[in-house]
Amino acid sequence: MKSFNTILHGKVTMRLGKYLSKNRIIELKSNDFSDTLTELLQTCNISDDPEVNASIVNEILEREKTITSYLGNGIAMPYIRRPISKPYIFVIGRCKNGLNFSNSGEHKDTRIVFLMIISTANEESYLTVLAAIARIFQHPENVNLILENQSINAFREHVRLLFGTYKSSVNSNKSSLNQFMLREAQKIAHANKCNAVLVFGDVLTETFDFKEHSDKLTFILVTHKTDTTMENYFDDVIYVHPFSNYRLSQARSAVIIGLTRGLLTQRDRICCFAGLPQSNVFDTISIFDIGKEFGNSFSNNEDLLAEGIHPEVLERLLAIAADIAVEGREGKSVGCLFVIGDIAKIKPFTKPLVLNPFYGYKEEDRNILNPFMAETIKEFSSIDGAFIVRGDGVIESAGSLIQASSEHAVQMPSGFGTRHAAGAVISAVAHCIAVAVSESTHQVTLFKDGKMMLFSDQSFSSPSI
């Protein structure tokens, strides 16, 4: 299992739940954002001095003028760094009737405020933790779960369930078909010398204890939505946006992320256990030889990451690209290009097409790991040109033109336009990674050293069983 600094990777909420005690899950009395922050701080016991709490509130409100902590879906997630003894202090409040999030009256639908106090010692990991918490609240079903229950006890119980600190009972009425399919999947996995079983959890509508049937195989959950109850029964978790209702639409994406994280290697053979999303029935078993699938693209795991690129940053970038490909922007298809790597190597081959919208902002506010950046990135995705991203996640610019001489041209398959050609060229000359989203096909393509890998390809080289 990964260290706390890579907490974005798998079983994240089980580790974070210890920072959210029962008495810090409260019903809010205020309907004003400033007063709400004061209420939440009073439960944290950071200081008995009202002036200290007032200064914290003012600092948060001042920061709201630069970048909003409104996550969407009725959730606000303000945070602040302070010299505290613990790595984190979490407190969550529910406002049943909604509150005025700002003086302008916007976001009146805010119903939940999650305040995060971060130790100043956690300079490297806090954005990753913030992104992991945001993922929980980005799913409407999770929010509805803690809003629909009227009593404070039920509210607390469901919040603790989301953070893995409360054990719910596993549904004993498991499908006999799923149990049979799982037993067969294990037999097939062993017979084919598979290293891991990828379980596509979006199939399920109820909890299923895979650990009970795991037979010493490594089980990795592949899913789009956060479900801490399900996470408890797996060795690790990969979050991937499904590109369609195709049974294995997440498979190729999950393998790429597994490779960058070190969960999988190109020497591995894996068993995929899948079905139609939300059908609650597993009906597909596939054997996937990673080396054969990706052998023509990259020679080893290290080839997937250019020097200086953090794995969690590439994973976050791919997730945002997938969201843009699937959802578009305001109902319209959008195409865009991300370039990530060593800025000193990338800069000679770029020039601005527009004034840089990220210029002058703090690095933490324009880091791609910051969950509040997702909507900003999607908003600027319609601008011509590329996003330029440092390997540690800081966005340097948007609307950048990729320019290279004819000697740097890369041969591209038919059907790919100038955006993909630019991605291929910059990845070759600057030894970086480029990720392109096609406006017409909604395909996500990764480029490294001029070579391309289709991130959202829905086909398998190996047959289903």
Q: Top keywords for this entry?
A:
465 residues; alpha/beta; Mannitol-specific EII, Chain A; Pyruvate Kinase, Chain: A, domain 1; YojJ-like (1; 3 domains; seven-stranded mixed beta sheet; six-stranded mixed beta sheet; 14 helices; 18 strands; globular; disordered C terminus
Summary of the model, kept short:
This protein has 465 residues and is an alpha/beta fold. It has helices at residues 12-16, 33-42, 50-64, 126-137, 140-147, 152-162, 176-191, 228-231, 251-261, 290-294, 311-327, 343-346, 373-380, 418-429; strands at residues 25-27, 70-72, 75-76, 79-82, 88-99, 110-119, 196-200, 218-223, 236-239, 269-274, 284-289, 336-341, 350-352, 386-390, 395-402, 433-437, 444-448, 451-454. The longest helix has 17 residues, at 311-327.
Rounded Rg: 23 Å
Low-confidence stretches: 1-11, 169-174, 458-465
Under the CATH scheme, the architecture of the largest domain is 3-Layer(aba) Sandwich
How much of the residues is beta strand, in percent? 15-25%
Structural class: alpha/beta
- Average pLDDT taken over every residue: 81
Shape: globular
Q: Number of helical segments?
A: 14
Classify the fold: give the CATH topology of the largest domain.
Mannitol-specific EII, Chain A
Question: So, the CATH homologous superfamily of the largest domain?
Answer: Mannitol-specific EII, Chain A
How many separate domains make up the residues? 3
Total number of β-strand segments?
18
Oligomer: single chain
Strand order of the largest sheet: 13-15-14-12-16-17-18
